[in-house]
Amino acid sequence: MARPPLTQQHRREAKGAPSFPNVEGPKIGRLCPGCGKKLRRRDRRLCVECSVPITRKNFDEGRRRAQQPELLAKRSATQKDTQAGDPELESVGPAQLADA
Ligand SMILES: [Zn+2]
To answer: How far apart are CA 94 and CA 67, in angstroms?
Structure first.
């Protein structure tokens, strides 16, 4: 049976360093900075309603940056490399890929 992984605290103690005290999180739970709603999941920074428009905005920004001429040229070069010898893939140009 595999041993459970050591926690960071155990590692620190094994090295003879003092372990950090356990810090309790705020009792009220995490709130969404966008709307102030209580977050159900601890690993979420925003609630679902607030994260959707922000995720869309980031996606749009990523698409916009991907259309810069130097990046298009780079991608075109990459596609020529990867599609060489594959007639099916050669028919797919950057325009179709951008809309996918
Ligand atoms: Zn929210």
So the answer is: 10
Q: How far is the CA of 37 from the centre of ligand 1 (A)?
A: 6
pLDDT value at position 98? 56
Which carries the bigger pLDDT value, residue 89 or residue 34?
Answer: 34
Say how far apart CA 27 and CA 84 lie, in whole Å.
Answer: 59
Count CB-CB contacts under 10 A for residue 46. 17
CA 81–ligand 1 middle distance (angstroms): 44
Distance 52 CA to ligand 1 centre (A): 10
> What rounded mean pLDDT belongs to the chain?
77
Q: How confident is the model at residue 45 (pLDDT cuts 50, 70, 90)?
A: confident
Per domain, the residue ranges of the chain are 48-80
CA of 17 to the centre of ligand 1 (A): 40
